[in-house]
Amino acid sequence: xxxxxxxxxxxxxxxxxxxxxxxxxxxxxxxxxxxxxxxxxxxxxxxxxxxxxxxxxxxxxxxxxxxxxxxxxxxxxxxxxxxxxxxxxxxxxxxxxxxxxxxxxxxxxxxxxxx
Length: 115
Hints:
Number of strands: 4
Helix content: 40-55%
Strand content: 5-15%
CATH topology: Glutaredoxin
Low-confidence stretches: none
Number of domains: 1
Shape: globular
Order of helices and strands: EHEHHHHHEEH
């Protein structure tokens, strides 16, 4: 299991605590330090949809110019922005055996997916 995120993100912190309390010990991938590939972003978008992977509720999204925001109309344009602004990725993303299974943190979804 790999948990992708940023260590100081509150949602990532909640997910890490929940996972540890349930006995999971995920590898942590800090994509601010280690980066993220376009291939990985496309994989996540294929599973969750680019509209979900692109976090429009965060400060990174709000800091983008209105013109740049309007230019994001499909997966290709979203991935290009996410690659350059990885803080705009919805966090965390959890992969199990190389497959993305969860994005964000929802206790019920985690319980259902990680039985």
